[in-house]
Design brief:
The chain is built from 9 helices and 11 strands. By secondary structure, the protein is of the alpha+beta class. It has a domain of 216 residues: set domain protein methyltransferase, domain 1 (Alpha-Beta Complex). Strands 1-4-11-10 form a 4-stranded antiparallel sheet, with no helix packed on it. A 3-stranded antiparallel sheet has the order 5-9-8, covered by helices on one side. A two-stranded antiparallel ribbon has the order 2-3. The radius of gyration is 21 Å and the shape is globular. It starts with a helix and ends in a 19-residue tail after the last helix. InterPro entries: H3K4_H4K5_MeTrfase, SET_dom, SET_dom_sf.
């Protein structure tokens, strides 16, 4: 039997874990797949960290800051043929595919697979979504049929997912109408935004870049099965940007700093995506933003505390319930994102003998 304190903690956690755009009442949310930005959210350039999100005026705790639509997204599930977490492949939908018998309260959806049977990971929630997505999927279908099984067998799921996300980025680029995604004065949009993301071959270990170069030469050159028209060097640069900026999609929020029950983590990853505007946010181990995807795969930013005018708006790049100690956090960030964190929390936890200078993307020799 739970104590009253435990019950209160669980109830509070459950309330927190269900924040989505459906529960936010401080703005009117457009249900279309258009991005939304808080009027006080702007971007600036830091001399070391590069682009960053900044509050131009004070922002109160709990305010919706951003809803960003994915430029490209892929499912990340163990059994795509039967998993309820597979997302509709239509980039204008991105809902989880739920069978009509899954719940009486859900809108009936009928899983529609690719007529060419490229991979079981590709599916739509109905025939209308499949038809609407025909041009974009046509770009990736032949490539998936030709290479998916081979890449998964020889290189593993992670590298396959990485390359597939790149292919989907290129697919979106191929169907993007010129002038249809005009940049605002504050934020770029479309392919222009993807080109502006940070990351280059110089920011990654030489051994890692060599591996990616091999993958590009084997599977990603422009061809009849992948007609992107880019050079191998440009595709490699795109991989470097994607790996530095893509988001994992989890069922619960990322960025909760303190929980009395650390078992309430963000859950199991079910997708990966690139968001043109959300990717601008830098990391802090004491973030003032929590983020999670909504039911349409859009990334939602909400302020987790009051934010002052001129203050940087930061997210956490990882689950703060998983990496708690300073050494564990820094090791994870160095391995996954190639920088030494010098946020306020990390500096406050440093021992006097630690004297490391901040280099957001340090030059590195081979690490193998």
């Amino acid at each position: 039997m739970q104590s009253p304190t435990a019950t209160t903690t669980t109830a509070a956690a459950e309330q927190r874990l269900h924040i989505t755009t459906d529960h936010l009442t401080n703005v009117t949310i457009n249900t279309s797949q258009e991005p939304w930005l808080h009027a006080y959210l702007s971007q600036s350039t830091h001399p070391i960290k590069g682009r960053q999100l900044v509050a131009s005026h004070p922002i109160a705790k709990g305010e919706l800051l951003l809803i960003d639509t994915p430029y490209a997204v892929i499912p990340v599930v163990d059994d795509p043929a039967s998993s309820p977490d597979v997302l509709c492949s239509n980039s204008k939908c991105n809902r989880k595919i739920i069978s009509a018998s899954a719940s009486a309260s859900t809108e009936p959806r009928t899983r529609t697979s690719c007529p060419s049977n490229c991979v079981p990971d590709v599916a739509w929630c109905n025939e209308a979504c499949r038809a609407a997505d025909q041009a974009r999927h046509g770009f990736e279908c032949t490539w998936l049929k030709k290479y998916a099984a081979s890449i998964r067998s020889k290189w593993g799921e992670y590298d396959f997912g990485m390359l597939w996300l790149i292919v989907r980025i290129l697919a979106t680029r191929s169907v993007e109408e010129v002038g249809s995604l005009e940049s605002t004065q504050r934020f770029k949009a479309g392919w222009s935004a993807i080109e502006s993301l940070c990351g280059s071959p110089e920011t990654w270990a030489h051994s890692q870049v060599r591996e990616w170069s091999t993958l590009v030469k084997k599977y990603m050159r422009t061809s009849e099965s992948l007609p992107h028209g880019m050079s191998a060097d440009d595709v490699l640069a795109l991989i470097c940007r994607e790996e530095a900026n893509s988001f994992g999609l989890y069922p619960r929020e990322t960025g909760i700093l303190s929980l009395s029950d650390t078992s309430l983590d963000r859950g199991e990853q079910f997708a990966a995506a690139v968001y043109p505007r959300a990717a601008i946010a830098n990391h802090s181990c004491s973030p003032n933003i929590i983020h999670k995807p909504d039911n349409n795969g859009r990334m939602v930013f909400v302020s987790s505390r009051d934010i002052q005018a001129g203050e940087e708006c930061c997210i956490s790049y990882f689950d703060l319930t998983e990496f708690v100690e300073l050494s564990a956090r820094r090791e994870h960030l160095q391995k996954s994102f190639r920088f030494l964190c010098k946020c306020e929390r990390c500096l406050g936890e440093e021992t006097p003998e630690e004297d490391n200078s901040w280099d957001a993307f340090p030059a590195m020799d081979d690490d193998e």
